[in-house]
Amino acid sequence: MGQSDESLIAAHLQGDPAAFRELVCRHGDGVLGYLCHMTGNRDQAEDLFQETFKRVHEKAHTFRGDGFKSWLFTIATRLTIDGARRRKRHMTISLNQDGDCDEQNGSLLGGLVDEAAANPGDELVRREQKEQVRRAIESLPDGQRAALVLAYYQQLSYREVAQVLGCSVGAVKTQMSRALATLAQRLPDSIGAAK
Amino acid sequence: MNGHLTDQQLIDYQFDLTSETDSTTARTHLEQCDTCRRRLHELARRLSALDLIRDDVKASQTLLSETIRSAKRAGRWRTLFVRKLPWTGAIAAAVVVGIALLSVPDRGRKDAPAFSPTEQVFSDTTAAKGLAEDVPMAAMASAPADRDTAEGLRGEGVPPLRPAGILPADKRQGQDALATAPVLRPAVVHTLHGLSFHPYQNPWANRLYIAVEKAAARRTDYFISVADAMTEQNQAEGIGVDKPYVTAYSAIEEEQFLTSIPQDKLREFRRTHDIPENAVVLVTIARLFELKGHDYIIESARELSRRFDDVVWLFVGDGNLADDYKEQIRNLGLTDRFRFTGLVPPDRIPLAIQASDILVHCSLREGLARTLPQAMLCGRPAISFDVDGAREVVNPDTGRLVEPKNVPQLIEACAELIQDKAFRERLGQTGRASVKTKFAPDTMVDTIEAVYNKLIS
User: Fold this and answer.
1) Checking CA distances to B252, which of B33, B178, B239, B305 falls within 20 to 30 Å?
2) What's the angle, vertex CA A102, arms to CA A97 and CA A104, rounded to 5?
C-alpha cells in the first residue's frame, strides 16, 4: 500500500518531485474520465486535465488536509464550468470527430480490431451499447451528470460530492435520483451478447 | 404503503437516496411484494449498463508526462515572474526587426543601377549565425552609391555590412570603394531556417511574429528556405507572397556519413552502451526538450517491447527533460530497453547512427530535421512524424511518415521495420541515393550563389 494522497501532498510541498508525479498517475484516469463525461470531448478534457493538475501543483499549500480527492475534483469541476462559459462566449464546432470521448485513448480502429478479434458480432453490439450509455449520460443536465459521475464512477460519498459541487447532500441526492430515473429509461435494454 | 413502489422510489431505495424512514418502509414492502422485487431487479439490471464504460478512459503516459512537466514549468515561470516566454521572444524579435526595418528603406531598389559582385554584402552564413535562427534576418547587399546616405546609415549606428563570403580582391581597395561609392538601396535576402510562428505557441505571439515577418517581407528581395514546407507555410500566412523563394537544403558534410565505419568500432559502440549485438536499435537524435516528441517514442516502446524481445531504444542528446524521461521509462519498467548517450560530439553522430538500425524522429516542429538526411546518408531508414519538411525526404521508399502524435501508427511503422531486416536495408539504400545530391554542400552553395547573382544582375 502506497502513501496516502494527503501525505503525498505534504511531500510535494516539501519539494519532493516524485510525490506530485505519483498523485497525477494515481488520479489521472479518474480525473480524465470525469472531464470526458463533463465535456464530451477528449481534446477539451485533456486541456482541462492539464490545467487541473497545474492548479493542484500551484495551490497545494491551500489544501486543508481533509479529502484530497474531493479537493481535486472541486478544482476540475470549477475549471469545467469556467471552460464551458468561455466556450459559450466563443461558440466553436469541432470538425474533428476523433476528439470525441468515445474510445479509450482515442484509438477508434485499434480498439475495434483488438476487441473484435474474439467475436466481431458481440463486440459490435457491445460497442453500440457503450455508445448508448455515453449518449444517455451526456444527455443529462450538467448538475445531474456531475453528481452521477462523481458518485457512481469516481465513488465519492454523497458528502464528498456535495463538497465538490458546493451544495447540500440533499441536493446531491435529488440530482442523483433524477439522473438515475432518466437513465433507467434511456439505457440499453440488454447487455453484452448479440441478440 | 398502498399499491406498489414507483420506479423512482425503487431507485432511491437501491442507491440510498432516501430518508431512513422511507428506506425502512420500502424494505418492508419489498419483503412482501414479488412484483416490486422483480421491478427492482429489472431496474438494477438496466442501470448496470453504466458499468460498461467504467474505467473506459485512460490517461496516456504522454498526457501524464506533459501534465507533470507543464505544472512544474508553470511553477518555475512564476518564480521568475515571466509568465509566457514566447512573448519575451516576440518582443525581442519585434525590437530587432524594427531596428532592421528602420535602417532598410522600402523604396529605390527598382531604380538602382547594378552593382559590383565584389560589393555584394550578404551571406547566408552571416544571416544564419547573426541572430536567433527564427528571427527574420536582413542580410544587406549594400553598395554605397550616395555618400550622404551611407553616412546617414552609419550615423544611425547601422554600418554597411561587409561581404562575409565575397570580398574584393584587395580588401583595402574595396573599403575605399565602399567609402567613396554612392549608396544604393540594399538588397535583402531572408533565410528561413524555421518559422517563428507555429501551432504550439501562444496565438497572440504568433500574430505578432507574423505581423513582423510581413513587415520584413516588404523589404525582402529574395527568400531562401531550408525546405519547401517553410515556403508554403510562410506564404499561407500571406508573408512575401509576391516575392521569389528558393529552397536550399542545409548542406551536410556527407563524407563522414557515407563512409562505412568498421564493424569493430560499431560493436565497441554497442558494448559501451550495453546494447546486445543482435538487438535492433531505434535511435533518436534530438535534444531532450519540449516538442521533440520523446514521450511518443517512450509510449510506443511500451507496446513494442511486449511484441519484440530484442529491441533497444537509443536517445542521443541531452536536455532539461532527461530526468523526466528516465523516470517515465523507469515507471513503465522499460529501463533495460532504453539507453541514453548524453551529449555526443558531432563527429560521433555517424557512429551512433551506423551502430543503429532505424532512426525515429517524433519532433512536432522542425524546419527540416538534419538528422533525417543524416540517417539516410548512413543507409538507415527513417520514421518521422509528418511535420514541416519531413516529407521532402521521408517517403514510402525511404522510411515511414506517421501522423503527428499518432502513437498506434508509430507503433505499426516501427514494428514493420523492426521485423524485416531486408526491407530496412532496401529503404536505407533508396534513402541514401535520394538525399546524396540534395544535401551536398555544392548544391546549397550553387543555389545560394544563383540567388546572389540574380540580385546582382
Assistant:
1) B239
2) 115
Q: Are B432 and B377 in contact (CB under 8 A)?
A: yes
Smallest Cα–Cα separation from B433: which of B376, B380, B355, B385? B376
Contacts of B255 (CB under 8 A, 6+ apart): none
C-alpha separations of B172 from B140, B169, B178 in Å: 20, 9, 10
Do the beta carbons of residue B385 and residue B363 sit within 8 Å?
Answer: yes
Q: How far apart are CA B393 and CA B367, in angstroms?
A: 12
Contacts for B122 with CB less than 8 Å, ≥ 6 apart = B139, B140, B141, B161, B163, B164, B187, B188, B189, B452
Nine cell digits for residue B66: 506533459
Q: Considering CB atoms only, which of A36, A58, A176 is closest to B17?
A: A176
Judge contact between A153 and A134, C-beta under 8 A.
no
Q: Name which of B299, B303, B308, B319 is nearest B421 in CA terms.
A: B308
Going residue by residue through chain B, which has 457 residues, state the pLDDT in tens, using 9 for 90 and above: 558 889 899 999 989 898 888 889 999 999 989 999 999 998 888 898 898 888 788 888 888 888 888 887 766 555 444 444 556 666 776 777 667 666 665 544 444 433 333 333 333 333 333 333 333 333 333 333 333 333 333 333 333 333 333 333 333 444 444 444 555 677 889 998 888 888 888 888 889 999 989 988 988 999 999 999 999 999 999 999 999 999 999 999 889 999 999 999 999 999 999 999 999 999 999 999 888 999 999 999 999 999 999 999 999 998 888 888 888 898 888 999 999 999 888 889 999 999 999 999 999 988 899 999 999 999 999 999 999 999 999 999 999 999 999 999 999 999 999 999 999 999 999 999 999 999 999 899 999 999 999 888 7
Distance set, CA B306 to CA B303, B309, B310, B332, B453 (Å) = 5, 7, 10, 12, 57
Interface touch B43/A184, C-beta < 8 Å: yes
Angle at which helices B20-32 and B34-47 pack, to 10 degrees? Answer: 110
Classified as helix, coil or strand, B97 is: helix
Minimum distance, in Å, between the CA of residue B295 and any CA atom of chain A: 15
Of B246, A21, B295, A152, the C-alpha closest to A2 is: A21
b/e for B387-411, b at 16 or more Cβ within 10 A?
bbbbebbbeeebbbbbebbbbbbbb
Residues with Cβ within 8 Å of B39's Cβ and at least 6 positions away in sequence, in order, are B4, B5, B7, B10
How close A127 comes to chain B (CA, Å)?
A: 9
Q: Which residue of B has its CA nearest to A127?
A: B52
> Which of A29, A134, A137 shows the shortest C-beta gap to B59?
A29
Selected for mutation to probe chain B from A9, A36, A41, A50 (highest B CB count within 10 Å) is A50
The residue behind cell 562505412 is B260
